[in-house]
Structure formats: structure tokens, C-alpha cells
Write a structure and sequence with these properties.
It is found in: Endoplasmic reticulum membrane. The chain contains 12 helices and 7 strands. By secondary structure, the chain is α+β, with helices and mostly antiparallel strands.
């Protein structure tokens, strides 16, 4: 019986201890003021942390700034200052870390191979979208090649003069590359650190605390005032109530006008598309239903596109191929005529070259074919 009574008393003591109110370890007002000061004065960097952009700071820089803060001087009522040594700053920051103002993170350097792979992935969809634009007809491609050949011959003379300048520019380019390489810093990303404590080093600490800006309080106050004013609508003056009534009618009419425009533009597009068997696409106010600004949704006024069918595309390709074949045959005839011309030049060639005028490009040279040079 005595043992049972002892056990009952022990249980009652345990229950009394469990029912006692536990003191919550909450952040103090001073810690909030220090956090606000740190957010304003300590330099912050941005990077990726678990696929989210976060802001972080380094511990040694934060301690350096806090050693020059107002808390290094004693207050009027206290004898000692809050921050006297770097260890005291570390102690306060450690308490703030426990109160979840920020947390410690581990720096991981991003390899160049990962950056290159990301760039390639970003370029691939762009190349896919530009495939249709890069398709050209054979006739246009040959014209472009002829133009490129002419440009190459014109730039050949200029390149000979620019070789001397290239030697000087190479030295400057090397210097610029060195400076750029020095400026480039290795990109890093962050990951959670297992040891959550403050270390006076270049470790990263990610901000969790975000102070509420002052304009949020202003907007909240205005919302409360607007709600109270709407509730007091029956007490408004008659002229003000009548003005609000007319404004509501204007807003309703504008919405009806927008809905009517969307229906009309769909009807016009359907009629044009049906009469032309899908070849002509005509849109009134094409940006009306797009995710753009208010003024941009009403501009341009219309958009017209012609989309021929597959049969017409094939016919155009066949016509282009026929033109190319004709052009090649004519080129073959001209080359055969050039080969039949006599190789010997007249005696007046020297006098003609001396009396020849400088070219329009500003360089004293002549366009000569390869066959004449070989002869």
C-alpha cells in the first residue's frame, strides 16, 4: 500500500511539471532592430538555393559592419555596449540564427560543364523555331553565293593592308581577355549546411527574415477606410451617389463593348477563312485577348497573313528549280565562249593599264579572272 501511494505522488508531481507554462524562446525587440539594420547596411548577394533565388550574406563582412554599428557604444542606461568584441557579435548572431532570422548554407561551385549544358539547352529551342526561317530556295541561295564571292574579292585587297594593324590589335585583345578573366568570378549555388552555427569566416547565411515595408501599412489603412466608406454608401450625398451610378454604367458598357469586339473579330476571321479555303487569315485587333498592356491590346488595328496550301508550295519549288537549271545552262555557255577566245592579248595592253582610272572603291586594282592569270 505504501508503494502505491508513493507512485501516485510521483505521478502527480510529473503531471504538475508538465502542466506548468513553459517559457517560449522568442526573439527580442533588439534582435528585430539589429536584423532591420543588417538588411539595410550589409551587402547582399543573390544565387540559387534549392531551385529558388535567395539573398545571402557572408559572416565576416556582417561582423565587420556590426563592429562599426551603433551597438558598439554604451547606451544611456547601461554601462557596457552590446558589441565589444567579435565574439560578442558572434554570440548575438548565434541567437538570431536560432530564432530563424537566417540559416547557414554551404557553397557549391558550379562546374563549367553544367553552365555549357544549360546554354546548349537554351539554344536548342531557339534553333528549332528558326528552322522555318532558314529554309531558302536554291535560286536565292545561288544569288547569295555570287554576292559573297564578289564581296570576298573586294575585301581581299583591304585585308592585305589591315594585316599590319592586326598585330597591334592582338596585343590589346590579349590584355582585354586577361582583364575579363580576372573579373569573371566562379558561379556558386547554395545547399543546406548540417551544422547550424555562426562562424567568423566567409560562410554564406541565407536570409529568412523579411521586414514588412512601410507602404504595406499605408495600403492596409486605405483598404479599411474604403470598406468603411462603401458600408456608409446610403449616407453619401445624392450627387455623389448619382455620379457613382453613372460611373458604374460606363464600366458595364465598356465590358459589353469588349465582349462584342471579341465576338465580331471571331466572326470576321471565320468568314474570311471560309471564303478563301484557309489561305487568308485576317484578324481585327489581334492583341485584344493577348497577355499585354491596356494600350497594346488595341494596337495594331488588324493583322493579315497569307498561308498557301501544300500544292502551291510544291508548284513554287518546281518553278524555282526550273529557273536554276536554266541559269546553270546559260552559265555553261558563257564559260565555253570564254575558253574559245585567243590567249594572246593586244600590244596596247600596257598603255591601257597606264591610262586606266582608279576604281570606285578607292583601290588601284583590277578584277581579273583566274584563266587570264594562268595564261
Amino acid at each position: 500500500m505504501a508503494d502505491k501511494q508513493v507512485n501516485k505522488k510521483a505521478r502527480k508531481r510529473k503531471d504538475a511539471k508538465d502542466n506548468e507554462p513553459q517559457e517560449k524562446d522568442e526573439a527580442t525587440k533588439e534582435e528585430y532592430t539589429i536584423a532591420k539594420w543588417m538588411r539595410k547596411n550589409i551587402p547582399i548577394k543573390k544565387t540559387k538555393f534549392l531551385n529558388h533565388t535567395v539573398e545571402y550574406f557572408t559572416a565576416n563582412k556582417a561582423i565587420d559592419k556590426l563592429m562599426d554599428s551603433p551597438w558598439t557604444q554604451p547606451k544611456k542606461g547601461s554601462e557596457e555596449a552590446l558589441f565589444t568584441t567579435r565574439e560578442s557579435v558572434v554570440h548575438v548572431l548565434d541567437n538570431m540564427l536560432r530564432h530563424k532570422f537566417f540559416h547557414r548554407a554551404r557553397k557549391i561551385a558550379v562546374a563549367e560543364s553544367e553552365l555549357k549544358s544549360k546554354k546548349k539547352k537554351d539554344k536548342e529551342p531557339k534553333e528549332d523555331t528558326n528552322e522555318g526561317k532558314e529554309k531558302e530556295t536554291p535560286a536565292a541561295s545561288e544569288k547569295d553565293t555570287d554576292k559573297s564571292k564578289k564581296e570576298e574579292t573586294a575585301t581581299a585587297a583591304e585585308s592585305s593592308q589591315a594585316e599590319g594593324d592586326k598585330a597591334d590589335t592582338k596585343v590589346e585583345d590579349k590584355r582585354k581577355k586577361k582583364q575579363e578573366s580576372e573579373k569573371k568570378r566562379r558561379k556558386i549555388r547554395l545547399d543546406m549546411h548540417l551544422e547550424q552555427r555562426i562562424v567568423d569566416a566567409s560562410d554564406a547565411y541565407v536570409w529568412i527574415y523579411e521586414p514588412t515595408p512601410y507602404y504595406n501599412y499605408i495600403f492596409g489603412f486605405l483598404v479599411v477606410v474604403a470598406v468603411i466608406a462603401v458600408c456608409l454608401f446610403p449616407l453619401w450625398p445624392s450627387t455623389v451617389r448619382q455620379g457613382v451610378y453613372y460611373l458604374s454604367l460606363v464600366a458595364a458598357g465598356f465590358l459589353v463593348f469588349i465582349l462584342a469586339l471579341t465576338v465580331i473579330r471571331m466572326i470576321v476571321f471565320g468568314v474570311v477563312w471560309g471564303l478563301t479555303f484557309g489561305k487568308h487569315h485576317f484578324w481585327l485587333l489581334p492583341n485584344l485577348t493577348e497577355d499585354v498592356g491596356f494600350t497594346a491590346s488595341f494596337w495594331p488595328l488588324y493583322k493579315y497573313e497569307y498561308k498557301p496550301g501544300e500544292s502551291s508550295i510544291k508548284e513554287s519549288e518546281e518553278d524555282n528549280s526550273n529557273e536554276v537549271s536554266k541559269g546553270n545552262s546559260s552559265k555553261g555557255d558563257t564559260t565555253s565562249q570564254q575558253t574559245t577566245t585567243p590567249a594572246t592579248a593586244p600590244d596596247h595592253s600596257e598603255t591601257e593599264s597606264e591610262g586606266s582610272q582608279p576604281s570606285q572603291t578607292g583601290k588601284d586594282f583590277e578584277m581579273v579572272e583566274k584563266e587570264e592569270i594562268e595564261q
